[in-house]
Amino acid sequence: MDTAIADRAYTIRVHLVRHAESGLTVALSRDLRGLMVSGADERQIWERVPGSIKELLEAQGQVVAAVSAAPEDEGLPDGFTSASYLAQVRM
Predict the structure, then answer these.
(1) Is 14:36 a contact under the CB 8 Å cutoff?
(2) Of 71, 90, 91, 87, which Cα lies nearest the Cα of 30?
(3) Strand-pair partners of 27
(4) CB atoms within 10 A of CB 65
(5) Residue 38, SS3?
(6) Can you say whether residue 70 is alpha, beta or left, with left for phi > 0 and alpha for psi between -120 and 50 degrees?
(7) pLDDT at residue number 2
(8) Long-range contacts: 20-29, Cβ < 8 Å, 24+?
(9) I need a labelling partner for 79 at 20 to 30 A (CA). Which of 5, 21, 72, 91 fits?
């Protein structure tokens, strides 16, 4: 297998959104149509995001080697956290 063709990587930006009336919190992405991840709390949602991204891409016929996610907190003042994550996908 030619690794130059097989090794591709890209970033998917994922945001947490909360419904005002119901309090339902989900992770969504404009970069990956169809991604919607819920959980009991934010920690559980972020734990589920990489697996959900992998499943969604594989359902679209992609071969996914790995998915990792980390908070998008670059440039935030100390003590602040972001409701956005960056998922790194390696194909």
Answers:
(1) no
(2) 87
(3) 16, 37
(4) 12
(5) strand
(6) beta
(7) 39
(8) 27/85, 29/87
(9) 21
